[in-house]
Amino acid sequence: MENLILSISLFFLQLSATKTSASGGARGLQSLSKGQYLSVENEDDFLVSPNGTFSSGFYKVGDNAYCFSIWFTNSINKTVVWMANRDQPVNGKSSKLNIRRDGNMILTDADRSIIWQTSTFDQTWLEVQLLELGNLVLVNQTGDKIWGSFASPTDTLLPTQYLTKDNRLVSKRTDDTYLSGYYNFHFNDDNVLNLIYNGPQIASVYWPNPYQTIFQNNRTPYNSTRSAVLNKEGHFFSSDILKFNASDYGLGPKRRLTLDYDGILRLYSLDNVTGLWNVVWSPEIDACKVHGLCGSYAVCLYTPSPACSCLPGFEMVDKTSWLNGCQLRMSLTCNPDEVTFIQLNHTDYSGYDQKAYGVNITLEGCRSTCLNDCKCKGFGYSTTGDGVCYPKSRLVDGYHMPEHPMNFYIKVPKETVPAEDKMQFIPTRLNCTGIPDLSFMSEAGDDNGKTKTPYLKYLIGFVSAVGLVEIICIGIGWLYIILYHQGGEVVDMGYLALAMGFRRFTYTELKTATGNFQEEIGRGGFGIVYKGVLEDDQTVAVKRLEGVSQGEAEFWAEVNIIGKINHMNLVKMLGFCAEKKHRLLVYEYLPKGSLDKILFTDSSEQLHWERRFSIAAGTAKGLSYIHEECLEWVLHCDVKPQNILLDENFQPKLADFGMSKLIDKKGDIPGFSRVRGTRGYLAPEWMMNQGITAKADVYSYGIVLLELLSGRSASGDQENGHNHLVQWVLEKIRQGDGVQDIVDPRLNGVYDKEKHKKLVEVALLCVKEDKDKRPSMSNVVSILLEEDKESVEKLQLKA
Ligand SMILES: *[C@@H]1O[C@H](CO)[C@@H](O)[C@H](O)[C@H]1NC(C)=O
Ligand SMILES: *[C@@H]1O[C@H](CO)[C@@H](O)[C@H](O)[C@H]1NC(C)=O
Ligand SMILES: *[C@@H]1O[C@H](CO)[C@@H](O)[C@H](O)[C@H]1NC(C)=O
Ligand SMILES: *[C@@H]1O[C@H](CO)[C@@H](O)[C@H](O)[C@H]1NC(C)=O
Ligand SMILES: *[C@@H]1O[C@H](CO)[C@@H](O)[C@H](O)[C@H]1NC(C)=O
Ligand SMILES: *[C@@H]1O[C@H](CO)[C@@H](O)[C@H](O)[C@H]1NC(C)=O
Ligand SMILES: *[C@@H]1O[C@H](CO)[C@@H](O)[C@H](O)[C@H]1NC(C)=O
Ligand SMILES: *[C@@H]1O[C@H](CO)[C@@H](O)[C@H](O)[C@H]1NC(C)=O
Ligand SMILES: *[C@@H]1O[C@H](CO)[C@@H](O)[C@H](O)[C@H]1NC(C)=O
Predict the structure, then answer these.
(1) What is the CATH number of domain 312-444?
(2) Which reaction does it catalyse (predicted)?
């Protein structure tokens, strides 16, 4: 009790401390001390630097998604210079940043999981401040910095911030996300600062010029200090003797050096009148020579802005992303009689030269070398008359530039060669309307005007719908090559889109992975689940959906949202397949299977008390996470042990959430869906045809909790709103002298009596007839985690 009073009074103390400093003149806080916190919900909860140049707080990156960030207060759209958790945004509710008493500054998500921390330790006084230069620091009593954000930049270096051997800039993935991308600016092992594309499949340096020596590039490898800094006047200098000045050199303008999502490093100055950024320096890199833009076989060309394109006879591997580039529609054989070459003027691919061929080789000689070598995919031949020949084993980072002194010859099957007139690469108008997969995207663009929210409701901004259409259009406009002076619609490249590991599979791929759907591992209302192994040896669960009448586009739209939901207590969706009538979902594979198998049919005593408790808590966290989003359709509506899967450590993961959106609703009684809910777990409001809210999930959760505690199954055990398991539990309590009778005998009496009592109480609150008396899932999480003893009492009073 003492503890409780103490924590309540501390709570108010913290609150008032925060508010006092908030009301001190300008909005925003000067500093934050131990025990205080910034809350995502409170607009005034952010720090400002002494003169107000920078602010630091929760920055909105999606509909209900925030990253803890530092931004320029006075730039248009608040330019972000640093993020604590750019790859893992937190929920717009209940997320907090606080300095714990042990000196660790932590960022917690709605479910209280720690998303990011400074891992600092200091038992004495500590304070976090945002310095005028943009460094967020934790200082101790003597003013020493215990931690500073300058040591771990994201994509931006501010004046006086050092780039060292221990850090690097990493670009954003696309223009409108804050996710980490693949471009890096760092010191390499030769002590030279460079720009490198560090992609999932290949890594390659594109600046300084990789075809020249370090010295030809005016750098030196001899100084191993590895340190570089931009000073306040706008002069940059590095230990490898790279130096440059801002074009508006001098004190005054606020500047930032940012590695942009397109792989180009730019120094910007802020125009203090308009709030806009001007580029005041950038290395000389052709946008199309940045690596990793377009993937295998694809060619980057200016239209006039850079765009990727597949060649005639090729198609994009993955229509949502250029990462994997293009592939031939027909396979290439090794037989020289069956292959030929397409000529691309002023075009080249980077690297992968099979041999550095000398000069004075005839075109015919070069061609025959490549023709007779199965590994050769094509060759470059110089147009300057010196007979330089470059056969290549891999075609990546292709580019076309009007004056480039190289023609490229790509090996293709003879059948795919376009007719002579097509060889002129007459560009076709881009036509998106005929592509079924995209119709929803263009609709999305129209429906919401400029916003991109409907498909991005869930965490993380990704690519805007409009941006996605553009990218795909370019892919489809495969004849869009070589000529770039046509007047038609010209589309900018949004570059690497949606490379989140969530992807589209072909039916053949999944058929192969599952050995023609052999090993059945589960069966539910939505279809049968099979075990499979993907090409990269990842084991997956493939669910074949039944009763889906949605078109491919609609289906894609829905799964895309579900695919972005990411939480340790929710089963991760890895991808999907929508081809003709086939609708399949690919999930991570969980070796322990579902809870019902272990709880009800397994006689070995694997489910000891701690495991049961952690399953109860984890399931609550998962549900709480989806409920916090307040999206009606993500209500689970079918919480039961069959849908709680266990990983190798017996951590629970909820399966099947969001499914109601994918399944045909035709023929259902209004308000009572054929596929949702299972007898034994249904809240009374289902029977009464009342509106279904998150509280229906809470009811089902309560039943699952009773099952976990008692070891008795509730499945099917429900008539006219009376749940037999609940009746049994109430009866036991009435008869006995407490809750001790409601214990699974398989526990052999080994369990935590306090926790057990609490779980029974929580379960009974969850299964209240009146849905308003049931706690929310986040209440349940709090109670289970014992962080909020008060809430139990409050709820009991209310009940
Ligand atoms: C804040 O602005 C004042 C007046 O412009 C200046 O004298 C002072 O140096 C600035 N403080 C910092 C920390 O830059
Ligand atoms: C600021 O954001 C708005 C809305 O996203 C956008 O329309 C506008 O172009 C942005 N302005 C600048 C300068 O980036
Ligand atoms: C503050 O930190 C510095 C460096 O870690 C340390 O030397 C100093 O003793 C600390 N001061 C206090 C009061 O703990
Ligand atoms: C190496 O670089 C550092 C940082 O730029 C500089 O201070 C130092 O003098 C350099 N050392 C030599 C030997 O040039
Ligand atoms: C940058 O400008 C300063 C002052 O004008 C000059 O001394 C210096 O040489 C310049 N550095 C470079 C790399 O241009
Ligand atoms: C804006 O920038 C200019 C040039 O750097 C400077 O002369 C002027 O004082 C600045 N104005 C304000 C309001 O800071
Ligand atoms: C290339 O051939 C031309 C004419 O046959 C000759 O003049 C030239 O020296 C040759 N170049 C080399 C590097 O062999
Ligand atoms: C490529 O160049 C050759 C001559 O260098 C020319 O005959 C041909 O028409 C060009 N092809 C295209 C598509 O421009
Ligand atoms: C676009 O494609 C659709 C379907 O393939 C076709 O009916 C339509 O005529 C095309 N539009 C243009 C402008 O080519």
Answers:
(1) 3.50.4.10
(2) L-seryl-[protein] + ATP = O-phospho-L-seryl-[protein] + ADP + H(+); L-threonyl-[protein] + ATP = O-phospho-L-threonyl-[protein] + ADP + H(+)
